[in-house]
Each structure stands twice: as structure tokens, then as C-alpha cells.
Design a protein that fits this description.
- By secondary structure, the chain is α+β, with helices and mostly antiparallel strands.
- It is built from 20 helices and 36 strands.
- An eight-stranded mixed beta sheet has the order 18-23-24-31-28-27-25-26, with helices on both faces. A five-stranded mixed beta sheet has the order 2-1-7-4-5.
- β20 and β21 form a beta hairpin.
- It is globular and about 80 Å long.
- The relative contact order is 0.07.
- The mean pLDDT is 94.
- It binds one RNA strand through β14, β15, α8, α11 and α18.
RNA sequence: GCUGUUGUAGCUCAGUGGUAGAGCACUUCCUUGGUAAGGAAGAGGUCGCGAGUUCAAUCCUCGCCAACAGCUCCA
């Protein structure tokens, strides 16, 4: 007998070899119908797998991540079964579940396009209706290898080559058997709604030197209605796409004539961006930063010294030559080398440190054309950059202060769902990095400790460090769930050495400062993009390019509207007049769609009383008040928005 | 950069082997209207760019450019 411990602490006994499904049924046959996966001793498992030892045990229904992952993983096998039937000779790479759905990478003898997805879906549904059991079988490495070598399947044999004998399992649904760790649903019948979403290329094993396989993405649900809901949700998310909103709200534009990935900021976008810059500038001033300004180009040698040229030279805009070809300059791809030169302007004392040089520095990087994406990935962008030069004993404190700034800014802008990622070296591929192990270890532990002392919940990613040092990155998701790095804080022992930066210590000796690179927004471009998607264009009041618009009932009141607008602008409220020759209903509609926070309607009544009739975006009519009262009200709201965030921090 | 899809008016899109259409936006006129689209008229396009096939190409073929999805990359 084996003892099974449930989450509520209760313990029951079962025969050895009892499956998770049987346990679910023993608790309640009705419950068992909804259960999709189980966690046994902290490992997610299929319901059909026998349990051989005492275990802690938890069942998962649809809402659990574990259940969805199992469901989608089985769905990918179901798709493979259909593909195997429809495309004889097809070979399979890997087919995992992902955050929303699943994919399978295949090498098909004939091309598979979006047009084929419907018939694959159809076949999947037919197969699912037969409710085939999914069976698990342990095999030896030899047996596994033989199965695929006879088929001439280079992909699966390569995968098996990396596995340990004794840990290998095959899963079978219908005519399809796959090398797979599981877990899976007990049978395919639970899959009731299927949508194959897209086809794309993907390199085998994620290496661009390998063959490109066809990746088919899909998502499935236990109910048709859930699929419909999902598709509606996707449509809604697309409406929040910053590229769409940027166009609708006239914030930015890309011109083919200017060039790929080179955004033009339109007046409203520029206004928004300037407010963000002004806000950060004032926060940084409070924290002892000094603004500096550096040019957009620098001698190639500058980047050879920094090490950036060796690493990224070939992926940069190519050098600009002087007319006599005597000298080469690069468009500035980062600001750090310039700031290092500012440090070198004069001898520094330990008393001067930390020094904090900040700049809204525009940089240019020749990103791969396929990588460009709205404002989130561009070829010319402005970093809210700063470089801090400190003594080694100041490093941790300085780092923690930067974390404070980042968190404060995220708070003000209500980015609560960020992930803090500690980006460390790749443990294996040391070639990618410069500098000594000793310095790397110091830098990495400084970040880990500072984050821990700040109580930040972090995830650790290896191989995500910059080539000169580890990072603490703040990742935020866009409307469609794609993750973007916004804020970043990096520790660097390398550039100070490469630029031979020194300070005189209290021992009268020269010492090496440590450098912190940091950018709370990351770049203004990407930050505005993510902000747009988070707010759906309804910016916080203090940030909105236009805060209020005055709508005269008819042209007779245009003069009064101008007067109101002037009054409010004099009271720091960004106000326009909509004097279009249209009915009031029309003007309300236009300006609601522009996401203007306050609509101020003025007609005969208001003109006589010196008032405005207030309408709040998305909330409708709020009645009348005097101009002065409205101005006071708005100014109070703006102040509260900023104070509230400060208080939370 | 790679694989695939797309490219028609400022925007959103329809359409055809015989050189183009809608709605919105724009201009003018009428209207002066009280809380999410008032009416009429007008103007606007080398159908992404370049070649090829054809009597004839916006439509078919090829190349390039750009956008989109994914992969790879991201100082």
C-alpha cells in the first residue's frame, strides 16, 4: 500500500500502481470528469501514470496552469497524429505546450501553409471525437533509438542521443507514437475546440545554422465557448496594439523614406515623451544625478577601446568617414564610452564618488530587419541612460537606490505586473564575455544581494547578461503577452578597466571605480509602446498630451470657448478648443475617441454663468462648475496621482 | 538575417487580364444644433518599386522594398 497526502493534509491509502485518474475517481466521479492533470511529489503527471510510492498529491482542473499545459501538450500530439496521416513521410521535431496553446515543429515533404490549417483542425476534431486513450510506455535507449533510426528520423534520434537510458518514455495516441516525457491527458476526448493559429519557420533546436522547420501553432479548449471567448479576447488585445493606437492618436509614424525602424514623433507623441523625460529628470535630480550631453557620433577607436566594436561592429551602421577618408566615426550605439570620457576629464577623489551622469541619449543600432517591431524594437532610440561611478564599498547601496528609482517609476505608471530578472552569464559559453571571473563573481553577487535586500521577487536567467556584466532587468508584457525588457540596471567592472578609470583613495593610492549602467524606462520608445498597450491610450492625467478640450455648442460660443481654453492653459491644464462646425454629439464622439480626459461643453448657459459643463472620458456628463473650480479640481487630481505613487514607495 | 503572409485614396478595406470603387477623414456650401456620427456638393490614386509574359498587367511570373506573424539576435 502507498500513502497519498492531499493538499488539505488528509492522508489516504491506495494500492501500489494506482493511477492518478483512479484516485480522482475514488474521491468523486464527478470531480474526475473535470480533472486534467495531477501533481505527484511536485512533478506534474498524466492521470494514467501509476503511482508506486508514498506521495503528496494534487489534482488540477482547467484553471490551473499545470492542467492547461497538460491539455495543450496532448493537443500537440493530437495535431501530430493528424499531420502524420495527412502528410505521409512527415518528420517531427519537438511539440511542447506554451503559455497559450502549443506548437509542433515539423519537417514536411510538402509545404504546409495557413490554407491547410482548416483541414488539419478538422481531422484533429474527428480524431478527438474517437476519444483515443493516451498510453505511456517506458523504453530502453536502444529501443528508442532503433525505432527512429529505421525511419531515418534524424531529429528524434538526435534528441534521444541526449537522454539517459532508463528515463525514456513513449506516449501513444491512436496511430501516433512520440518520444515524450509527458505528462498527458488520459485520452484525447477532452479536447473539444481546436484553433490552429499560425504557421511559421523555426530553426531546429533554436540554432540559426540548422535547418528551418515548419512550426504550427494552435490552441485548444475543453469547451467550444471557451475558444470563442479566447478569440474575442485576442481581438480586444489587438485593439490595444501600440502601433494601431499610435496611428489613431497621432503619436508617431514610420516613413519608408526616412528608413526602417526610425520613428518620427508627431506633436502629441513628442508632448507625451517630453513629459516622461521631464518627470524622470526631476526624480533623478532629487537622487543626485547630473545631466550631461554627448554627441551622436564617436571615433571608431572609442568603441574598440570599450570592446563594443569587436562584439557588435559588424552588426552596426557602418562607419562614417571624414571627407579625406582619414578618420572613421560610428553612430553612437550606446552612451557608456562617452560617459567614461566624462569621468576622465579630471582626476577623481574617493570623496567625489559616487558620480552619477545622466543623459537622454539617442543611439543607433542596426537591428535585423525581421526584428523591428513598432516602437518596441527600432534602429534609432533614446535611452534614459545614466552611468554611476562608485567605490566598491558603495556598489550595493548605489544599486539598491537605483532599484528604488525603477520601482518608483513603475509605481507612478502603475506597471505592477513586471518580472524582475537577474541576467547572469552563460555557465558554459564563457567566450561571450569579457573580464575576469573574480570581477564577474563580485558583480553577480552584488546584484543578487541587492535585489534580495530590496525584497524583490526575481527569476534568474543564465546567458542573458551583457558581455561586460550581469544585469537586473525589469520585464513587462505587451497586449499580446510578449515580454519586453524595460528597465535595466547593470554592474560593470570591465569598462572602468578598459578606459583606465581611477580615483585617489584615502590611502593616497589609485583605485578602480565600479560602474553601474542603468535605464529605468529602458528606452523612451519602448516605454511609450508598453505604456500605450497598458493604458489602451488612456494615459494618466499628468501625462496625457491633451488634458481637456472645450466644445462650444455652436459657433456662437467659440469666443467663450477660447476664453475658457486660455484660462485653463494659464492654470497649467493642457486644453484645446474643438471649433469644428458640427453638432455637439459629434464633437463629443470625436473627442471621446481621442481619449481626451475631460470634455468641457459650453453654450449659452455656461457663457452667462462663467461655467463649463464637465464630461469625463468614458463616464459621461458630470454637471457644471466654474472654470476656476475645474482648474483647481484638475490640478488637485494631478498632484494626487504623483503623491499616491510616492506614498506607496 | 531566415520561413511564411500581405501591400489598392490620409485611415479601414472591396474589386477586376481591357489603366479603379466604398465608408470615414479632407475642402466648399447649407445648417447654429445641449451630451457618442446633421445634410449636400467636390477634390483626392503611376493600384509599394523595377523587370518579364501578353495586343493589353493593379491583377499572372521574377527580383527588390516595406509591413505583419514566428524563429534567430538584442550593447
Amino acid at each position: 500500500m502507498i500513502k497519498i497526502t492531499f493538499p488539505d493534509g488528509s492522508v489516504r491509502e491506495y494500492k501500489k500502481g494506482t493511477t492518478a485518474m483512479q484516485i480522482a475517481e475514488s474521491i468523486s466521479p464527478r470531480l474526475a470528469q473535470e480533472v486534467l492533470a495531477a501533481t505527484v511529489n511536485d512533478k506534474v503527471t498524466g492521470l494514467q501514470v501509476p503511482i508506486e510510492e508514498d506521495s503528496t498529491f494534487k489534482l488540477h482542473k482547467w484553471d490551473d496552469r499545470e492542467a492547461k499545459q497538460t491539455f495543450w501538450h496532448t493537443s500537440s500530439h493530437l495535431m501530430a497524429e493528424a499531420l502524420q496521416e495527412l502528410y505521409p513521410g512527415i518528420k517531427f521535431g519537438i511539440g511542447p505546450s506554451i503559455e497559450s496553446g502549443f506548437y509542433y515543429d515539423v519537417d514536411s515533404p510538402e509545404p504546409i501553409t495557413e490554407a491547410d490549417l482548416e483541414r488539419i483542425e478538422k481531422r484533429m476534431l474527428e480524431l478527438a471525437r474517437t476519444d483515443e486513450p493516451v498510453e505511456c510506455r517506458s523504453v530502453t535507449k536502444r529501443e528508442a533509438m532503433d525505432t527512429y533510426t529505421t525511419k531515418g528520423d534524424q531529429y528524434k534520434t538526435e534528441l534521444i542521443g541526449d537522454l539517459e537510458d532508463g528515463t525514456i518514455t513513449f506516449y501513444t495516441n491512436g496511430a501516433f507514437t512520440d518520444l515524450c516525457r509527458g505528462p498527458h491527458l488520459p485520452s484525447t476526448g477532452a479536447i473539444k475546440a481546436i484553433k490552429l493559429t499560425s504557421v511559421a519557420g523555426a530553426y531546429w533546436r533554436g540554432n540559426e545554422k540548422n535547418k528551418m522547420l515548419t512550426r504550427i501553432y494552435g490552441i485548444t479548449f475543453p469547451k467550444k465557448s471557451m475558444l470563442d471567448e479566447y478569440l474575442v479576447m485576442l481581438e480586444e488585445a489587438k485593439k490595444r496594439d501600440h502601433r494601431k493606437l499610435g496611428k489613431e492618436l497621432e503619436l508617431f509614424h514610420f516613413s519608408q523614406r526616412v528608413g526602417q525602424g526610425l520613428p518620427l514623433w508627431l506633436p502629441k507623441g513628442a508632448a507625451l515623451r517630453e513629459r516622461l523625460e521631464g518627470f524622470l529628470r526631476s526624480v533623478q535630480k532629487e537622487h543626485g544625478y547630473q545631466q550631461v550631453i554627448t554627441p551622436h557620433i564617436g571615433m571608431k577607436d572609442l568603441y574598440v577601446t570599450s570592446g563594443h566594436y569587436a562584439k557588435y561592429g559588424k552588426d552596426s551602421f557602418q562607419p562614417i568617414h571624414t571627407p579625406d577618408e582619414g578618420e572613421e566615426f560610428l553612430l553612437k550605439p550606446m552612451n557608456c564610452p562617452h560617459h567614461c570620457e566624462i569621468y576622465r576629464v579630471k582626476p577623481r577623489s574617493y570623496r567625489d564618488l559616487p558620480l552619477r551622469f545622466a543623459e537622454f541619449g539617442t543611439v543607433y543600432r542596426y537591428e535585423q530587419s525581421g526584428e523591428l517591431h513598432g516602437l518596441t524594437r527600432v534602429r534609432g532610440f533614446t535611452q534614459d541612460d545614466a552611468h554611476l561611478f562608485c567605490r566598491p564599498d558603495q556598489l550595493k547601496e548605489e544599486f539598491k537606490k537605483v532599484i528604488d528609482i525603477v520601482l518608483y517609476i513603475f509605481n507612478v505608471l502603475k506597471f505592477n505586473d513586471y518580472t524582475a530578472q537577474v541576467s547572469l552569464r552563460d555557465k558554459v559559453d564563457r567566450e561571450k564575455y569579457i573580464g575576469t571571473d573574480e570581477n564577474w563573481n563580485k558583480a553577480e553577487s552584488a546584484i543578487i544581494e541587492a535585489a534580495a535586500e530590496k525584497g524583490l521577487k526575481t527569476i534568474v536567467e543564465y546567458g542573458e547578461a551583457a558581455f561586460y556584466g550581469p544585469k537586473l532587468d525589469f520585464m513587462v508584457k505587451d497586449a499580446l503577452g510578449r515580454s519586453w525588457q524595460l528597465g535595466t540596471i547593470q554592474v560593470d567592472y570591465n569598462l572602468p578597466e578598459r578606459f583606465d578609470l581611477t580615483y585617489k583613495g584615502d590611502d593616497d593610492q589609485l583605485h578602480r571605480p565600479v560602474m553601474i549602467h542603468r535605464a529605468p524606462f529602458g528606452s523612451l520608445e519602448r516605454f511609450v509602446a508598453v505604456l500605450l498597450e497598458h493604458t489602451a491610450g488612456k494615459f494618466p492625467l499628468w501625462l496625457a498630451p491633451d488634458q481637456a478640450v472645450v466644445l462650444p455648442i455652436s459657433e456662437k460660443y467659440n469666443d467663450y470657448a477660447e476664453k475658457v481654453s486660455k484660462f485653463l492653459n494659464n492654470h497649467d491644464i493642457r486644453t484645446q478648443v474643438d471649433d469644428l462646425n458640427e453638432k455637439i454629439g459629434r464633437k463629443i464622439r470625436d473627442n471621446e475617441l481621442k481619449r481626451i480626459p475631460f470634455l468641457l461643453i459650453v453654450g449659452e448657459k455656461e457663457q452667462e454663468a462663467g461655467e463649463i459643463a464637465l464630461r469625463v472620458q468614458g463616464e459621461g456628463d458630470k454637471g457644471s462648475m466654474t472654470m476656476a473650480d475645474f482648474a483647481a479640481y484638475v490640478n488637485k487630481l494631478v498632484a494626487e496621482e504623483l503623491d499616491a505613487a510616492r506614498a506607496v514607495n
